[in-house]
Records
---
Amino acid sequence: MGKCDRFFFFKVNSTLVFSLCVLSALLIFAIAGPYLALHSYDETNLAFKNLSPDSRFWFGTDELGRDLFTRCCVGARISLIVAFAATFIDLVLGVSYGMISGYGSQKMDEWMMSFIDILQSIPYLLIVILLIVLMGPGLITVICALAITGWMNMARIVRGQVLQLKNQEFVIAAEAYGASKSRIIIRHLLPNVRGQIIVVLMAGISTALFTEAFLSFLGLGVQAPVASWGTLANDGLLALRYYPWRIFFPAFLICLTILSLNLIGDGLRDLFDERKKI
Amino acid sequence: MNSILTVQDLHVTFSSRFEEIHAVRGISYHLEEGEWLGIIGESGCGKSTSSKALLGLLADETVIKGKILFQDKQLNACTESEIRQIRSKEIAFIPQDCMTALNPTMKIGLQILEAQKKSSPFTSFSQAEEAARLLLEELGLEFDSLKDAYPHMISGGMRQRTLIAIALIREPKMIIADEPTTALDKKLKKIVLDGLKRRQQENKLSLLLISHDLESMAEYCDRILVMYAGKIVEYGDAKTIFRHPRHPYTKGLVNSLIKIDQDKNKPLNFIKGQPPHLNVPLNRCAFCERCEEAMNVCAILSPPLYQINPLHQSACFKHDPGDRA
């Protein structure tokens, strides 16, 4: 075992490596794509509307003659930012809230969980519309909306796991040897819920991508001419019958991202699971 | 000798929304420096609960009444940081369940050394490793092959000995051992208990030993405390308890030991019935339904501990001095 072994496992786990490659390709696509493209994302030209993919317009054009390749690149930026923001919020807010709630006293747990219940009982769209009134539509608003609504699932799952773990003998033993609460959380509880956290995180990312698309579709998210994969797919849906490539490319990119993230999640979970490495 | 641990009228009550469970109902005992006190009794009669209560390891909602004195400190009135000091340096605890008592995501070596680091933070890493190597060797384990293993990779007996090593490496004044030898075979049990015994003689290690293994208790412990339904039913030195038990419950326990020359056609001896559920206060002898020698008084009054001789106490009305006269 040891460091050497972890690298060995990394080599063997080809799906993890493959999906990491796919994700980095997507990142490069998002960062460098607009510089490679021949057209800017908001350049309209009605003469070239609804063209199929060719050497000039690699992914075709939309109904205003805008280059779909560039728009997908710009959309990738928005979508990936949303995905990573959602992960980050889930990780920081959800995990710490769940840990504190599960490991704290019973009274505190009850209060903290009631707070989540109340928050979840408020219709989600209501919160988002309220936010938009306050902040105006845009990417920041979408991220704030995800921040407010997205972490509760994670908090519940982490809390459940911690409740189960904290009565296990090894946590009690650590207490019996004078370990402090923060040390128990970091050294004993966190490594044991790592697997579940990763799985929930990856599921959360796909939800976040679709939520962003849905909000943008309602006109509450990013505003035209800026686009995300979600809005592009929605636009494409209207023209599905005659110009199917307009939905194919953004939808394919969404699928590819979610698939690679899920595979990365599985791979990381296995990588950290000591039991799978005998 | 002066006593290292004094417990006075300890009550432990678990309360849930629906009922209160009086797991420990007023026990008092003391442990001298360098003495071994064994606690025996059936499952669920408050042995583990009372020992965990000493270190404050029970859930926050548990109500603990009474006085727990370690040397001069009252443990159940300490602040969080004071009790952590005591837990990390003075009293070690060997947990009961060796299958779950090690963190599954940490290497064995680290789990042993972490304990050492906490108790004496100034020793260097190599010194700590050397101490761990010597200690594990004494327990029949090899530190170098074990240090990079995760708990699921080693056997139950090895895990149990790891737990004992974690307790011993910090050289505590007192150990609370909750069934420390259940997963060990006879030979290893002897090695472990002899190792502890040596520390008793050299460093005056005091031990609170909880076990169902009456044979080794009889051999190693100085005094024995018999618990039933959260109370002490008999308390005395080990020889007297095992050779001349006075309380009917202790008699039952000693009788249920299996002898090798026992007639194979005869059923094994055991105490019939179940211990009472402890959700209501008991105003009678808790053992009276199962007791073959029960009298009328046993069903209406709870017997106090009667002094049979200076070293021997029993909670049975049969030992009431007025009755004997």
---
Amino acid sequence: MPNKPDIAYINSRLIDPSSNLDVKGGILTRGSKILDLGSHLFNPDLSEETIMIDCQGHILAPGLVDIHVHLREPGHEHKETIESGGKSAAAGGVTTLCCMPNTNPVIDDVALIEFIQRRAREAKSVKIYPFAAVTKGLEGKQLTEIGMLANAGAVAFTDDGLPIMDSQVMRRALAYAKAFDMIVSQHAEDLSLSGCGCMAEGQMATKLGLPGIPDASEIVIIERDLRLVEITGGRYHVAHISTAQGVEAVRKAKEKGLQVSCEAAPHHFILTDSDVGNYRTFAKMAPPLRSEENRLAIIDGLSDGTIDAIATDHAPHDQESKRVPMEHASNGVVGLETLLSLTLELVNNGHLTLLEALSKITCEPADLIGLKAGKFYKGAPADMVIFDPDAEWTVDLEKIISKSKNTPFEGRKMIGKVNRTIVDGRTVFKQEA
Amino acid sequence: MSILTNDMSFKHRHLLGIEELSENDVSNILNLSERYIQLNREQQKKHNILRGKTLVLLFFENSTRTRTSFELAGKRLGADTINISVSSSAIKKGETLIDTAMTLNAMHPDLLVMRHPNAGAVNLLSHHVRGSVLNAGDGAHEHPTQALLDALTIRRHKGHLNGLIVAICGDIMHSRVARSNILLLQLMGAKVRVISPPTLTPTGIENLGVDVYHDMQQGIDGCDVIMMLRLQSERMQGSFVPSTREYFRFWGLDRKKLSFAKEDAMIMHPGPMNRGIEIDSEVADDITRSVILEQVEFGVAVRQACMELLALNLQKEG
């Protein structure tokens, strides 16, 4: 069988945030790897066998990396599957994602890591790396076999969806995971403070007559955890950070030299609690949409580097989980297909440069988790996205590829559109003309 | 019949811990123990050094090998031995412990061997009795005769302690054996490493002068002696390690991990062993490497030596 021909992606604005590269150029791939890249490939003279793909002057960047995705499989396949979530990711320009372990059964055993890996291979879409649970069954009591799970391929640990409330368990998790150089990612929420709250505490919740969740619910857990990081020397990550004071606590911890990181979700730097509007359950998630002050603090955290990554917290839910009163609605929004455009809003609004913004969804999260992704160099996996940063589109529930349509961005005008997504040299998504 | 020579002076009234011993004290105990090893291998094992003396074995914690070893040591020296086992649940208040001590004291015991689940309890007892107290283990604090018998076993195999690299592996947090061994081995010039999961590594242990490792292969690399500790699940409240299979996978001594030590590295374990948890049977039973049964044998000799040295002081006091 003859080798597959090389593919050249030419006539592009070639961007690699990890090396601050932003030139007119192109990339030549052979099989699953990048063979060559640079401005000499903008309009190259290559052998006839080489397949040429014209990027039409659009941006050619490393495939996006999303380190916080709920794929819902196993257990909730009516909301999303590894296959459908992979397709949604590909449509959003995401070539590498990390899936969360709060499935049924919970990903707390080596056999389940292997299940995810097998299903990801079968789906043949994007690269999927599982986070494993910190505690058995997400019960917050007994540590999982963190060493064996890490050896099997778990890339980080979290009980996401639930916090680790018990301080002793959290201390031991941080200490124990350190032996394997593994991150413990926390869903920072004091459940006793959140109570039955279903949106951010404040004027809006008061007006709507809904029980509120105070900012302190997140802050007290982050501040507690940072003290545990100090005594354990563990690696700690705050998932979906959403409060100004939470960001400030992480900022101070980083100044102290602690191994601390955090991520923010697009909805937390785009929307506020006022977007809950008329009891819109699609705007219900955990942590909740918060005040404008908090939203601006997330943007500040992204621009000064306190927040390492933008991650979607893609949380698919079927209609039945959302077509209920606010207090009964499930938490979460889908996000894979809106990640790029919403991130680019930070650029269009002048908060971040294009390179800074892209680094938050490529090389920075990849480096944090230790994934071989999000960067261009010779020999790198040919994981790429081609997108038009100026193309406009409108979020249309009908066109969402994810199995679930629960987005608060319905009808929103977006700027920046994915044309093509390439994983290991294979095109896994191509925008219809 | 004393087998003591004049240079063997021992100035302690009790043996509460390695912490109070000097290098010379340890050498004296080990040298005297050597002679008892020989005597214990003869047909006639009984001597009269402690004849007329009363030895009380007071155990507030279950023990088979340590209690038997002390009892045998006392009997071979000719002492009258009595066993008092007190279930720890019966003793809940400090006053009760002291009351027990006072009661025993009234019976004029000469030597009191005591084990207690709480650190410092043996020390407390020693303030309330006239006889000599031997610590047979207090909580996670000290177990001096175990460290002495370990040192004797190493010295007999390697000829010396000075300069050896000794790795103490496993549940350091709950181990009195580890603490006594760290003190004794360093006192005698050995280099000590501790290898344990971070959750079983006591805070500040590096300040005792040891090198701390979490990775077994790195920690074992180049070691002369590997001392395995029992995973003390009964002392654990909550989740220190995820499971015994994960513990064995990363901190259990097996052939593969052993291969990183020196070729003639010896394997020790204070017992009782959890086979398949901290040690693989294949290496525990390897008579070319494992000295676990010798440790038991030498334990009796070490305890005889300690009792004799303490009894000598009692005689001086008259």
---
Amino acid sequence: MKQTIFVKVLSACILFALSSASYAEELIMARTNQTFPEAMSKLQETIIKHDYKISRVQRIDIGLTKSGFATDKYRVVFFGKEKEIDLISEKYPHLIPYIPWKIAIFAEQDNTLLITVDPMRFSDKNHPGADKYLEQWKKDIEKVFATLRDSD
Amino acid sequence: MSVFLSGQADIVKLVFVYHHYYQDMTLSLKTHLFISLVFLLFNTGLHAEENGKQLYSNHCAACHGIQGTGGVGVPLALPDFQYGVTNDYLIKTIRSGRPGRVMPAFTQLTNSEVNAIVKHIRSWAPGKPFKYSDKKISGDIKHGKKLFAQNCAVCHGANGQGGQGTGVTFSRPRDLPVIAPALNNTGFLAAAPDMLIKTVLMNGREGTPMVSFLKQGLSEKDIDDVVSYVRSFEKTPHPKRIITNESLLITGESPRTLDETVAAVQRAIVGKNFRIIRTQFLNQGLAAEGKENRKQVVIYFCNFNTLNRALAIDPRVGLFLPCRITVIEKEGKVLVTSTNPLYMSKFFNNEELDKLCEDMHQVYADIVEEATF
């Protein structure tokens, strides 16, 4: 009996530890040695390889140089899958203002930085059905960023 | 992970306990525990030592640069920084971060992983870093405060809150090669022993604006007083972040039709001195042209002064951009909804950004209210 309780407690600790291990940073970021045009091209190519569509690329650089910024290379890339966007906007309207997902990409000297929010930060216990999409987006974003990091 | 099993020694203990009770377990329990243990071994970072470079690339390089040359984070490869800080300082900094000052707390990394990252950081400057004694410095806080105001406040802020903005070169010219650290930050105070602070004050830090205050005319006694004053920041509660339990959305229900509401939102946006960039359907660019859902309309807008202010605070704010309000018609209701900038801001660990997002929260709330009135 005593051993059974011990084992159960130990198992709970292990499971807790494993779940803690999967805790991630709130922002997913990557730096690549690639120049901005190369990284921008690679980013879009990699997003498409993961079966997403680029819905729009927004320039943020208009007026940046005039305002004293050393770079004018700053974009926001919106991407998604039509069916997922339609389904999520229908079933999980609380996510509508945050979709399609976006990645900010900008030059820092000879490097290029990419940044997005971990989609799982928008997980809501009242809408557990949305998690499978958020989890998948997170996995795909991590793969996309890993590709960019390794593309030096 | 670090709470329970933070290193190889802990794993050894667990294996020992597992073995000790093994005889008395049922087969299912044995199987269950065995599988858990195998997973655990692969998750504790036992192999992390060899992966310091990869771990650094994944967790640190985006801010600190691939070779530690800095960016949004400090240049870790700077020789004077390398020799001036201990491994303990680096470990505590990785673990606790700098609350409200961008550097997050990496609580999810195992001890092995943190050690591997530190080892990789150290590879840029072979040689032994300074060793500091744990000796507490007991100086004249009142005098230290006076000296701090005269010599330190210009860079580190009147209350040791640090310089404004982030990092070194982040996409714009900088007056300083590094932003002066926040000396009143709980993360800094926990990581830096008195003797480390004293040494930096005495020697300065080459490659940064931090000069030797011995050479500037302060005595060692004066420096001890300044160190005591800096340490006294621990007794002053650091202002808590504005963000507590923010909701995901700012939402209002409109009494008008969808088209009328879109026009009302656009008027409200212009009334707040923002410029409409684009109005489009939510799935535009994803759905075939002409097949978009016309009951989901997104209005993008911007104010260049606010944009530049935001970029000066934290260049990562592209994730907020452009500003956006969405109007949707669903089940006979027309809803106006937007992201909550304060909800987003909490991911950035940047107090300055929190303040801007508080302002933007009000702008969004006003637009939604006006458009749905």
